[in-house]
Amino acid sequence: MKLDSSVSAVITGGASGLGAATARRLAAHGVRVALFDVNEEQGEALAAELGGVFCKVDVTDDASVDQGFEKARAAIGQERILVNCAGIGGSAKTAGRDKKDGTTNHYPIDQFNRIVQINLVGSFRCSAKAAKGMLSLDPLEHGERGVMINTASVAAQDGQIGQTAYSASKAALVGMTLPMARDLMSEGIRVNTIMPGIFETPLLARLPENVKQSLSASVPFPKRLGSPDEFAQLAETMIVNGYFNGESVRLDGAIRMAPR
């Protein structure tokens, strides 16, 4: 797919981090972008910078997502590109003991459900609604109508202690990539997934410098955190390379996460 002003894109979690980097890279090619996010201040500022549109969207809420797509399509037209970057983390053991008093506990079920609802169900919700909209588009070269990219994590394969919910949600994104691509193949819609490693995102930016240095040292090569624009570069490649379909790709500097 050629990236220019004839193409529009929706990026969930687009107000910061990986989503913002992807929005900037697409907009640099002239693509009209819509940012879905709950952070209104950051989202509005970035949309103004890029000449796009911000839509305050909670990906766990069906009506909110519908309203977001309605607003986006009214402003920039039916999207041919969807990049799902909205997601959260969280850590707790499946079950354990309190180190102070020895009392036992288990992973809070509501926390587990929230992570799955945002990371997995939210991504599927946006993908299904975007794909339905793409069906109305005229096909481009080789019958292509659109492309969708989900954001998983290396935790989909190397989940660490406490990452049961997070890893499950990300592994499920990897698991649905190929069947979703097969669902949509006759309509000319491609589906891929990126599994980033340790990236310089707002979440990691808040960590102490010594912790970030330790994380950087754990990457085989290059020994640094990933840049959000490197994620965006891979997303761009998945979009413009029409033979890229049904794939889940690690982007991690060859890291394999240790148990803790």
TrEMBL record:
It comes from the Bacteria. InterPro entries: NAD(P)-bd_dom_sf, Sc_DH/Rdtase_CS, SDR_fam. Belongs to the short-chain dehydrogenases/reductases (SDR) family. Keywords: Oxidoreductase. The keyword Oxidoreductase applies. This is Short-chain dehydrogenase/reductase SDR.
